[in-house]
Prior knowledge:
- The chain is α/β, with parallel strands linked by helices.
- 33% of the residues lie in helices and 16% in strands.
- Helix 1 (110-125) crosses helix 12, helix 3 (175-184) crosses helix 6 (234-250) and helix 7 crosses helix 8 (313-322).
- It is elongated and about 85 Å long.
- The record marks 235 as: Important for substrate specificity.
Amino acid sequence: MALSKSKREVEEEAMPHLTDYLQLENLKTYTNPLDQNRFFHPSHGFYVSPSDVILRQIVYDLSSACGAFSDSDPRVHVAYHRAGPRKQIFFEPKNTRAAIVTCGGLCPGLNTVIRELVVGLWELYGVRQILGIQAGYRGFYSTTRNPLVLNPKMVRGWHKLGGTVLETSRGGFDLHQIVDAIQTNAFNQPMGTLDQITWFSYCFSSSFGLPSVRCDIQTFLQSHFLQVYIIGGDGTMRGAVEIFDEIQRRKINVGVVGIPKTVDNDVGIIDRSFGFQTAVEMAQQAISAAHVEAESAVNGIGLVKLMGRSTGHIALHATLSSRDVDCCLIPEMEFYLEGKGGLVEFLDNRLKENGHAVLVVAEGAGQNMIPRTAAQTEERDESGNLVFLDVGSWLKTELKKWWARDHPGELFTVKYIDPTYMIRAVPANATDNLYCTLLAHSAIHGVMAGYTGFVSGPINGNYAYIPLEDVAQATNAVNTKDHKWAWVRTVTNQPDFVKS
Ligand SMILES: Nc1ncnc2c1ncn2[C@@H]1O[C@H](COP(=O)(O)OP(=O)(O)O)[C@@H](O)[C@H]1O
Ligand SMILES: O=P(O)(O)OC[C@H]1O[C@](O)(COP(=O)(O)O)[C@@H](O)[C@@H]1O
Ligand SMILES: [Mg+2]
């Protein structure tokens, strides 16, 4: 569905669509049921058209011939399709089955996204077959984890819960077993049993005043439109690309959408991930406690380790919002301990000036400085992510060694706080809950419109559809050359750790 370049030299990223690989004569379109929805009364401008786009970049240097426009053509602004309801849809709601899965680590707001997918599919479009795939990618083909049949009643209070009711896992990505399950629409459960449960559940619900659907089990069993909602981080999105490629290769009528989840905020292109702000808020509580401990001791250091496997966004944002931090260490920036301009010299001066100091370190920082055994060098989790050593414990030991060596007999304490899972195992705050709702509804509108192999996410404050492949390839490291990092350094006055 790629559109040609317009006169204004705005070129939107080509968005994969079902019509790219399925014959048009096999694809029926339907009028969006929102047309008949008594809450909407669609008026002019309600439906989004394929020519509505969101610019990827909104900061330009008008005096520059090129600026930083598209890589291939410097005169072109890169744009993405704007998210929102389309007038025509490619799925007949009564014959549509949706599957929702959560993969990877936890993130505040997962349950809100699931809830809003269920409520949105059910209330906006009248989809009655909604399945929760359990325990991550492996749940598609697991013989022990049957899908949950979801409906609005079931998910009502889920936005108030941390974690994911569907459960999640790392590893277990078996492309062919997953796509086989999607293709047969069975998810390793005897179709008859599953369909009867779902059928009874929707007949039951419809008798309680929910939008009525025809309780005809034969129609129900003919269900062959499938939508797969994959909620996960960078690893999950790489898996989703493979699933989408295989679905295209098999030419099956399945819409695939990724909903980016990452407490580390390490997914590129989108403004930020849901749950990130909640995690930063929780991280600040740990920093406050470290500050109190450090201030109340003689030569006290409060040391906080925060999540951030390869990116230091949580540490950076918590530092900026807390203002109690003397030094913030992130994976994107090398640092060293001893010598001129090193961490030890800096902390020595801070203790002399203020009597205490607060140090925040992202878990991925300084990993190359921590001694490790050969086995530790190789250790990976089920998804293949490198397992990190505890930079906080290592720093604590090194700081104690330094003090005993340079200030023997003087009082000194390091209070190490590692909130680990506490920052991500909480329910989403209000801002994140709102974000999750808009994200889920954007995803539904896009899939219904026939887009597939895409991610829904905010770009410059507007919701857009981005090809899955672009998101899977993009990273979001902290740019230590930009203004935000410079701001951290002005707040903390910490060294740049560049050896002269
Ligand atoms: N390159 C990849 N190709 C296919 N699947 C992947 C890839 N990387 C990770 N996965 C799968 O995605 C899921 C989540 O990945 P993980 O890295 O643990 O979390 P996250 O998605 O949060 O980054 C796991 O089931 C994992 O097996
Ligand atoms: O949940 P686990 O397996 O203990 O992994 C912890 C990791 O998960 C994270 O919280 C999030 O990572 P993902 O987004 O890749 O799932 C990292 O910050 C942390 O390193
Ligand atoms: Mg990840």
